[in-house]
Amino acid sequence: MIIWNDKGRKTEVLDRYYQGIGEENCKKIESVALDGARTYISSTNRYAVNALVVYDKFHVMQKLNNAVDGVRLSELHKARREGNEELIELINCRQRFILLKKKIDLTENQAGYLEKLCKINEPIYKAMLLKESFLEVYTKNTVEEAEDCLNEWIKEAGGSNLDIFKELSASFTEKKQYILNWFKKRISSSISEGFNNKIKRLKRMAYGYKDIEYFKLKIHQHCGLLNPKLQLKYE
User: Fold this and answer.
1) Range 22-43 burial, b when 16+ CB lie within 10 A, else e
2) CA 63/CA 65 separation, integer angstroms
3) 215: closest CA among 206, 224, 225?
4) Who is most buried in 67, 79, 120, 233, counting CB within 10 A?
């Protein structure tokens, strides 16, 4: 259940949570799964001094998929300028989900589509190779093996001619230890992401909230300690 929420993603926002639970409780936190935001990492390192900070695997993969889609969009704009109808048809928005799936999960038709696309567009081909090669990191059994694989990927991505992957290489270099911490404590922020989806749905149902404090109360009512069903269960 949600025990706390606030507006924004700045460092001081999460600071308020840690300050609220107090120094002693902060010291008892053993591990924290985050989405990789510098602000969250900074706040957690400052207050939860004993916690192992884990860059959530889901968000790492989300970054990779966003990078692949960024290459797709760049190539789509280029194809439109050049009037390349064949490429436009292959990389339009209706087809983007194929690029975001793992190769192993593709149907025979989807795999054929991807093979054709990679043959006629080198940047997307390179982007797909970089995405698939990163998946090898999470197949390793030890931190040491994962680190060697990650270092090799960072070098490969940083040396590519794809700017978005060069940026991702720099970002993963900066947060490498947090990525590797997943092998020490395999925790996830998936529950939080589920709550985020419920909150977005709640917001859409009300067509938005003008009063942020009331919105926060509604979030707790639907997802937290104000849930009447939970109260009945405890009684």
Assistant:
1) eeeebeebeebbbbbbebbbeb
2) 5
3) 206
4) 67
* Interatomic CA distance for residues 71 and 164, integer angstroms: 7
Q: Which structure tokens are listed for 192? A: 């939080």
N residues, the chain: 235
Model pTM greater than 0.90?
no
In the chain, what is the straight-line distance between the N-terminal and C-terminal CA atoms, in Å? 17
* Averaged pLDDT in 10-residue chunks for the chain of 235 residues: 85 94 96 93 96 95 94 92 88 75 81 83 91 94 96 96 96 97 91 84 87 86 67 43
- Token pair belonging to 141: 């059994």
Q: Where are the alpha helices (DSSP H) in 10-141?
A: 11-21, 23-28, 38-47, 57-82, 85-91, 96-100, 108-120, 122-134
Nearest to 179 by CA among 132, 145, 137: 137
- Are residues 169 and 71 both part of a single domain? yes
The structural domain count of the chain equals 3
Q: Are 59 and 189 in contact (CB under 8 A)?
A: yes
Contact assessment for residue 131 and residue 146, using Cβ atoms and an 8 Å cutoff: no
137 within 8 A of 125, measured Cβ to Cβ: no
CA atoms within 13 A on the CB side of 113: 19
Query: What Cα–Cα distance (Å) separates residue 59 from each residue in 13, 34, 83, 92, 161?
Result: 20, 8, 35, 24, 24
Is 181 a member of any domain? Answer: no
Same domain, 145 and 97: yes
